[in-house]
Design brief:
The complex is a heterodimer of chains A (about 375) and B (about 400).
Chain A (H helix, E strand, L loop, with lengths): L7 H17 L2 H4 L11 H10 L18 H14 L5 H15 L4 H7 L4 E3 L14 E4 L2 E10 L6 E8 L2 E8 L5 E5 L9 E9 L2 E3 L5 H36 L1 E2 L2 E2 L4 H29 L5 H26 L11 H13 L4 H11 L6
Parallel strand pairs in A: 1-4, 2-4
Antiparallel strand pairs in A: 2-3, 3-7, 4-5, 5-8, 6-7, 9-10
Chain B lengths: L2 H23 L7 H10 L21 H10 L11 H14 L2 H13 L4 E4 L15 E5 L2 E9 L9 E7 L10 E7 L5 E6 L8 E12 L3 E2 L5 H17 L10 H11 L6 H27 L9 H22 L1 H4 L20 H8 L9 H12 L20
Parallel strand pairs in B: 1-4
Antiparallel strand pairs in B: 2-3, 3-7, 4-5, 5-8, 6-7
Helix pairs in contact in B: 1-3, 2-5, 4-5, 4-6, 6-9, 7-9, 8-9, 9-11, 9-12
């Protein structure tokens, strides 16, 4: 039976992450990622990854990590969502780390756990768990091929690259600054999670493990999808809390707009919706942590539900703030952009419905 | 293992022993259900979180689910007897919260054994959403109260031995302050029960006319004039009870009916309905998890207004899914199984045919607080938004424009 609440340890971890973001990346500073010269948040990432040790949550203790689980990583994701923090935790400490661990790596993950290295998994961010991943091609000269819309590549030291080998999918590591590696940052709808196109031209690589990497890539995307729901929870909660505070304080026609039943009922409905995000996200995190047989279903349900709920919360936040919500200055748009991009990450709700249909035996035809 | 975990394991082990002892002495397969439930009550296994002597062992509420699961697995009869949902879900927690030790002893045991089937005398023709507007009068007469008035939407009143009743005891004070809560004997000659037919064709509810019904003051729950607070406890429990009807297991409730049909009848399938089916399936699953999480948070104490959210969601989904189910079977959706006026033994929202389920689900957003009133409850009591402008709040009940 899943515990859908938080342990005291998880709450303590939340406090430390929340304090860090409150000090080091409040919304007015996050906004600078949209400037002509994007602001460098690597110091915040270093503080989260190394000083607080969050990069090593999913890494076993014998490899220098914290030996924690997806439950704790999910709490970090909640706080990242709440702060729209521009840190590559998902791309490095979740996606790349899980792929490497599952493929049998014992070296790179030590650097990742220590926070001295940052990595990114070279797949498009929109790839759903279970989607076919083609991989770049490999020859005696190294890796050659193109991978588009990769999250966290610009911030990475190491690229973890699925490769189409002669006997199936392989996983390779490539130094971000190696010859034959071109990382082109893109203008993104959500600049708080930067994406880039990667071009490999005979880039030198090392293969991780010897078995097929299908399962490792799948596990990585599955974990990413499960944990993204917690980020969506954090986004939805910030949007809800901020909107609730605003409607209590904003007055029109001589009374708080939150006293009008049209607004009260909308907020009641949003409260119900946001309160349903938490159980879905916690169930996905808990089943992922326990490697429960139900984990793929839980992740698909969480993505199918939480992605839309976070977008709805962000849209309501803009609408109920009226004109203020449309301004560049007010942070609501940071959450809207993050929520809308998160809706696409690891597959849309439509994609997860199709996946779920297979998992629970409700075939389309 | 922490000391807390150890203590918890010791309690769980002790409880398993008590359940085993109960089952050894009273085999559910051969015992009379009422005798079995009496023994279960006396063993403190009715509600383990209630006081000793009141069917409980004063343990944290979280231990109840294990007892229920163990007893259900052994084929034990449900607490309260068949369909005693108002007794078990609403009257019992209210009696436990507001009854004196003596009242708890008097009421809870026969309630739990099923000897006393309960109904609820709350709503009136003039007091629906505005429950504090009840005008049924209770007038003091020595050690008794004499009650006159009309109640409505009373499920199972025709077979109930007891009712929880809210009546006006003081019309000279504002409405919330002049109400008192009673346990009423439904076998009193002044109680007249008349079936109220509803859109499904059957009469699941009744109108109840109370004429000089005599209730001893010993059956008053809470102080005179304190009925609103007691009723709020009942209603909060009702919302949790309705809101968690969706069930603990996946695909229980309305979505299970639709999923079964989809699997069994491939000729019904089409791609557009498939995406809608999956959307509803996901929502039902998330609602199930939300109910589980609420129960995990409610391991102690009385539910607050949080259950209102669960109930609004339950109603919305039951309506959407039952409407979808009719469209799924276009030809059988045109038909109906039975328009005969009858009084069902109990209500099963997922019973009968799709047409019945669709019509019955319309009531889910009305009974136990309309979804509109519950949104006000959430907005005001949970979110702290300003209350609706109330013209009647500080005026004596007798002076209100009714």
């Amino acid at each position: 039976m899943s515990d859908l609440l938080y342990s005291d340890t998880e709450e303590a971890l939340r406090d430390s992450v929340r304090r860090l973001f409150a000090d080091r990346c409040p919304p007015e500073s996050v906004m600078r990622v949209y400037g002509p010269v994007p602001h460098d948040f690597s110091a915040v990432w270093h503080a989260l990854a190394a000083d607080l040790g969050m990069a090593g949550l999913l890494v076993p203790e014998q490899l220098g990590g914290a030996g924690a689980s997806a439950r704790e990583a999910a709490v970090v994701m909640e706080e990242i969502g709440r702060a729209v923090a521009p840190v590559p935790f998902l791309s490095s400490a979740v996606l790349a780390t899980v792929a490497l661990l599952e493929a049998g790596d014992t070296e790179t993950v030590k650097g990742l756990a220590a926070g001295s290295l940052t990595a990114a998994l070279a797949v498009p961010l929109s790839t759903a768990p279970g989607d076919a991943v083609a991989g770049v091609s490999v020859s005696g000269d190294g890796l050659t091929g193109r991978v588009t819309s990769v999250a966290g590549a610009s911030e990475a030291d190491v690229l973890v690259v699925p490769v189409a080998g002669p006997d199936g999918l392989e996983l390779h590591t490539v130094a971000r600054d190696a010859a034959g590696v071109d990382v082109s940052p893109l203008l993104a709808l959500d600049m708080t999670r930067p994406i880039a196109d990667l071009q490999f031209s005979s880039a030198a690589s090392s293969r991780v493990g010897t078995a097929s990497a299908e399962a490792a890539v799948r596990a990585s995307l599955e974990t990413g999808a499960a944990l993204l729901a917690s980020e969506q929870l954090g986004i939805a909660q910030w949007c809800f809390d901020t909107t609730l505070a605003y409607v209590k304080q904003r007055k029109q026609f001589g009374r708080a707009i939150g006293s009008y039943q049209a607004i009260k009922h909308r907020l009641a409905d949003l409260w119900i919706e946001v309160n349903s995000v938490a159980p879905a996200a916690r169930y996905a995190a808990d089943t992922c942590a326990r490697r429960d047989d139900d984990a793929p279903i839980a992740a698909a349900v969480a993505q199918a539900y939480c992605s839309g709920a976070a977008v709805h919360a962000a849209e309501e936040c803009v609408q109920l703030h009226g004109g203020i919500g449309m301004t560049w200055e007010y942070p609501a748009h940071l959450y809207l952009k993050r929520a809308k991009s998160d809706q696409l990450a690891f597959g849309t709700a439509y994609r997860h419905h199709a996946r779920l249909a297979d998992l629970v035996d409700l075939p389309v035809s | 293992m922490s000391a807390d975990d150890q203590a918890e394991q010791a309690i769980a082990e002790d409880l398993r022993g008590r359940v085993r002892a109960l089952l050894d002495e009273h085999d559910p397969k051969t015992s009379d259900p009422q005798d079995f439930l009496a023994a279960r009550f006396d063993a403190g296994l009715a509600w383990v979180y209630f006081p000793r002597g009141s069917g409980g062992l004063e343990l944290p509420r979280g231990f109840q689910s294990q007892v229920e699961a163990d007893l259900a697995a052994a084929g034990a009869p449900p607490g309260g007897g068949p369909h005693n949902g108002i007794g078990m879900g609403m009257a019992a927690p209210t009696i436990a919260a507001f009854g004196t030790a003596e009242q708890q002893r008097k009421f809870l045991r026969p309630l739990f054994t099923g000897e006393h089937f309960y109904c609820q005398l709350f709503s009136e023709p003039g007091a629906g959403s505005d429950l504090a507007g009840v005008s049924t009068r209770a007038v003091r007469d020595g050690d008794d109260w004499i009650v006159n008035g009309q109640k409505v939407w009373t499920s199972s009143a025709q077979k109930a031995q007891r009712a929880i009743l809210v009546a006006r005891t003081d019309p000279t004070v504002p409405k919330h302050q002049g109400m008192t809560y009673f346990v009423c004997d439904m076998t009193d000659p002044g109680v007249d029960v008349r079936p109220l037919r509803q859109i499904t064709g059957e009469a699941e509810f009744n109108e109840v006319f109370l004429t000089d019904v005599r209730i001893p003051d010993a059956n008053r729950l809470g102080p005179e004039g304190g009925g609103w607070k007691v009723a709020t406890t009942t209603l909060n429990n009702e919302r949790v009870a309705i809101g968690t009807l969706a069930g603990v297991a996946r695909e229980t409730g309305m979505i299970g009916k639709v999923a079964d049909a989809w699997r069994a009848e491939p000729q019904l399938r089409n791609p557009a309905m498939h995406d809608e089916l999956m959307r509803l399936w996901v929502e039902a699953e998330v609602a199930r998890l939300t109910g589980l999480r609420l129960r995990q948070r409610l391991t102690a104490g009385q539910p607050g207004p949080e259950g209102a959210g669960l109930k609004v969601t339950f109603a919305r989904l039951a309506q959407a899914i039952s409407g979808f189910e009719i469209e799924l079977h276009p030809e059988s959706g045109l038909r109906y199984d039975d328009w005969t006026m009858r009084q069902p033994e109990g209500v099963d929202f997922t019973g009968r045919e799709p047409g019945y389920r669709y019509l019955r689900a319309r009531g889910n957003s009305i009974e136990g607080g309309t979804s509109e009133i519950l949104r006000n409850t959430i907005a005001e009591r949970i979110l702290g938004l300003p209350p609706e402008h109330r013209v009647d709040k500080d005026i004596a009940f007798k002076d209100l424009d009714k």
